[in-house]
Amino acid sequence: MANVAVLGAGSWGTALSVVLADNYHDVRLWTHRKDQAQQINETHHNEKYLQEVSLPSNIVAYNDMEAALQDVTAVVVVVPTKAIREVCQQMKSVLSHKVTIIHATKGIDPDSLKRVSEMMEEELPDDIYEDIVVLSGPSHAEEVGLRQPTTVTVSSHTMKEAEIAQDLFINEHFRVYTNPDVVGVELGGALKNIIALGAGISDGLGYGDNAKSALITRGLAEIARLGTSMGANPLTFAGLTGVGDLIVTCTSQHSRNWRAGNMLGKGYDLHDVLEHMGMVVEGVRTTNAAYKLSQSQQIEMPITQGIEQLLFHGAAPKEVVDQLMTRGRRHEMEDLANILGDQYSS
Ligand SMILES: NC(=O)C1=CN([C@@H]2O[C@H](COP(=O)(O)OP(=O)(O)OC[C@H]3O[C@@H](n4cnc5c(N)ncnc54)[C@H](OP(=O)(O)O)[C@@H]3O)[C@@H](O)[C@H]2O)C=CC1
Ligand SMILES: O=C(CO)COP(=O)(O)O
């Protein structure tokens, strides 16, 4: 059994700690809030996130990162995308031995346009890890915390590191696959949040299942279009971290992105929506990142473009839907063949 640090005591860090604790690892759940660490250790509940889940005694909360990282063999980073660089800098200042590093964050940085593992590689010295492992897939913390059946994928350039992560997490409730396509796994998990905002907006406007299915399907096409242009394998988007995560995030009321979109569709203002959520809604910043990438790579992403207009330029939800529905005519097979490559062209 291993000593594992989980950096980030939000919903997902807490749920992943439960999986690791169920596998008999000693889990150090690090939080940047001293009062939260104390509260978790006293009550064995995380009162702010995932309150209903009772935490096993082999999860101990820490506020001191140096103490949390002492003698660990693996570190799981689960903070919002915007905190990744800061947390890596803190890690770098106190970690001197080699560990397996896994991240479970889903986003793209709108300033540097980097994926999370790329930002981590920029911030961390390469002598403290072999490779960064990405953990992604359809996995709402609320269900994982209740030990409901869940499947995820771990990905790294070296299979050995992905398999170490697979061994740490896999159990009878939490099935872990491996996939070597880091770019595809990471982009699928980040970009689906944009489409989930769209699905929530559609539901908030009172549109039905036809509209949502259209968003999921055409959303997948634009995710795969940008993804393959950035080096992803198109097959990855047919897997758990592609269509799998897209389905769960667009259809589950656990999804923060869906819920935020739903309020936007009902006419609430973005600032008020984010205040109300009180948890990270990654799709907002990632929409801006993906929009900028689509512009620089000249990739057509009409749904992302519409959501960018709605979030940041005052477009009304109904106006965005009207624009999407009245675009020029398209040939579906040509679109799909373009994503898959020449061998599929008719
Ligand atoms: N929730 C889920 O079901 C899933 C989430 N994810 C991904 O996991 C990532 C984290 O999400 P989630 O846990 O749900 O988010 P939450 O909003 O539930 O929690 C975020 C946590 O990160 C902490 N945090 C924020 N900024 C910093 C910082 N600078 N330094 C240290 N800690 C910080 C927050 O602290 P504070 O309380 O002080 O704000 C909070 O504890 C996201 O990228 C999300 O997309 C992936 C799969 C499932
Ligand atoms: O990534 C998730 C499920 O796989 C969580 O999505 P939300 O951030 O929208 O809740």
Automatic annotation (TrEMBL):
> Key word ATP-binding present in the record?
no
According to UniProt, the reaction catalysed is: sn-glycerol 3-phosphate + NAD(+) = dihydroxyacetone phosphate + NADH + H(+); sn-glycerol 3-phosphate + NADP(+) = dihydroxyacetone phosphate + NADPH + H(+)
Q: Where is the Glycerol-3-phosphate dehydrogenase NAD-dependent C-terminal domain?
A: 181-321
Please state where this protein is localized: Cytoplasm
What EC number is given for this enzyme?
1.1.1.94
Q: Which pathway does this polypeptide act in?
A: Membrane lipid metabolism; glycerophospholipid metabolism
Q: Mind telling me which Pfam families this protein's record contains?
A: NAD_Gly3P_dh_C, NAD_Gly3P_dh_N
Q: Which UniProt keywords apply?
A: Cytoplasm, Lipid biosynthesis, Lipid metabolism, NAD, NADP, Nucleotide-binding, Oxidoreductase, Phospholipid biosynthesis, Phospholipid metabolism
Has the keyword Glycosyltransferase been applied to this entry? no
Query: InterPro entries under this entry?
Result: 6-PGluconate_DH-like_C_sf, 6PGD_dom2, G3P_DH_NAD-dep, G3P_DH_NAD-dep_C, G3P_DH_NAD-dep_N, NAD(P)-bd_dom_sf
- What does UniProt list as catalytic? 192
Give the residues the record marks as binding sn-glycerol 3-phosphate: 106, 137, 139, 192, 245, 255-257
Glycerol-3-phosphate dehydrogenase NAD-dependent N-terminal domain residues: 3-161
Question: Which superkingdom is the protein from?
Answer: Bacteria
Q: Which PROSITE patterns match?
A: NAD_G3PDH
Q: Which family does this protein fall into?
A: Belongs to the NAD-dependent glycerol-3-phosphate dehydrogenase family.
Q: What does this protein do?
A: Catalyzes the reduction of the glycolytic intermediate dihydroxyacetone phosphate (DHAP) to sn-glycerol 3-phosphate (G3P), the key precursor for phospholipid synthesis.
- Designated name of the protein: Glycerol-3-phosphate dehydrogenase [NAD(P)+]
What is the originating organism of this protein?
A: Pontibacillus salicampi
